[in-house]
C-alpha cells in the first residue's frame, strides 16, 4: 500500500504551498501589529490574532510556536521597516550638512504615517517582558545606520573611535525613544517642523561626545 500524497504541499489555485504559508504568516504578523499597535502587547492573544487575521488556530501554530514568538516577529517587522526608511534617507541625502535633518524628517514621516509603529518600537519593545531580550538586540541593529551618520565630519565625529560611535549611537536611540514617545503621545505640543529641528540638534550635540583621549 502506497502512502497518500501530502495534500497540504500541493499547489492550490496556482499558488505553491510555501507561498500560501508565507502569506498566512504575514496575515498573522499584520494582525499582531494591529493589536499591539493599538492596545499594547498585553492585549495580544492567540485567539484575538486569529480573529483579526481571519485564520484558524491551526494556521497560527503553523507559523509560530507561541504568542511570544509572534510578538517578536511583529517587533522585528516594524524595526526592519524603520531601518529601511533610515537607510534610504541616508542614501538620498544631498550633502552632509543636510544629512541629519533629512534622516530625522524621514523617520518622523515613518512613525507619523502610522503611529502604531512608534508604539511598537519605543513603548512595547521596552515595556513588554516578552520583547525585552529581542528588543535589546534590535537596538544594536537599529543604531547601525545612526552610527554611520555619526561618522560624518560635519557632526564633529572625525576624531571619534569605534567606542565613541557605538556609545553615541546608543545615546541617540535612547533620546529618540523618549522624544518620540512624548511628541506622539501629545505631551509636547509643537509643530512637526520644530520637532524635527529639535531632534536634529539633539543628534548633532550627542554626536560630539568623545572619550577617545582617555586610555583604557
Question: How do the helices and strands line up, and which of them pair or pack?
Answer:
Blueprint: H1 17-39, H2 46-53, H3 57-63, H4 67-92, H5 96-113, H6 115-127, H7 132-150, H8 162-184, H9 192-206
Helix pairs in contact: 1-2, 1-3, 1-4, 1-6, 4-5, 4-6, 4-7, 5-6, 5-9, 6-7, 6-8, 7-8, 8-9
Describe the 3D structure.
The protein is mostly helical and 216 residues long. The chain has a domain at 68-206: Tetracycline Repressor, domain 2 (Orthogonal Bundle), CATH 1.10.357. The chain contains nine helices and no strands. α7 (132-150) packs across α8. The chain is elongated, with a radius of gyration of 21 Å. The relative contact order is 0.10.
Instruction: Please bin the fraction of helical residues.
Output: over 70%
Quickly name the level 1 CATH class of the domain at 68-206.
Answer: Mainly Alpha
Number of strands: 0
Q: What share of residues are in beta strands?
A: under 5%
Give the low-confidence spans.
1-7
Concise synopsis of the structure shown:
The chain contains nine helices and no strands. The chain is mainly alpha-helical and 216 residues long. It has a domain of 139 residues: Orthogonal Bundle (Tetracycline Repressor, domain 2).
Amino acid at each position: 500500500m502506497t502512502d497518500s500524497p501530502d495534500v497540504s504541499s500541493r499547489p492550490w489555485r496556482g499558488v505553491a504551498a510555501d507561498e500560501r504559508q508565507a502569506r498566512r504568516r504575514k496575515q498573522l504578523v499584520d494582525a499582531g501589529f494591529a493589536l499591539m499597535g493599538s492596545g499594547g502587547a498585553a492585549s495580544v492573544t492567540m485567539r484575538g490574532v486569529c480573529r483579526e487575521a481571519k485564520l484558524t488556530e491551526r494556521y497560527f501554530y503553523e507559523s509560530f510556536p507561541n504568542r511570544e514568538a509572534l510578538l517578536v516577529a511583529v517587533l522585528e517587522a516594524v524595526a526592519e521597516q524603520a531601518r529601511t526608511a533610515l537607510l534610504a534617507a541616508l542614501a538620498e541625502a544631498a550633502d552632509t550638512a543636510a544629512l541629519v535633518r533629512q534622516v530625522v524628517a524621514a523617520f518622523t514621516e515613518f512613525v507619523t504615517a502610522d503611529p502604531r509603529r512608534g508604539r511598537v518600537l519605543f513603548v512595547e519593545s521596552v515595556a513588554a517582558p516578552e520583547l525585552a531580550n529581542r528588543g535589546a538586540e534590535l537596538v544594536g541593529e537599529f543604531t547601525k545606520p545612526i552610527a554611520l551618520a555619526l561618522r560624518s565630519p560635519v557632526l564633529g565625529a572625525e576624531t571619534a573611535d569605534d567606542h565613541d560611535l557605538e556609545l553615541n549611537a546608543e545615546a541617540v536611540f535612547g533620546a529618540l525613544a523618549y522624544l518620540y514617545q512624548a511628541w506622539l503621545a501629545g505631551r509636547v505640543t509643537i509643530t512637526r517642523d520644530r520637532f524635527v529641528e529639535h531632534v536634529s540638534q539633539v543628534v548633532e550635540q550627542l554626536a560630539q561626545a568623545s572619550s577617545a583621549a582617555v586610555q583604557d
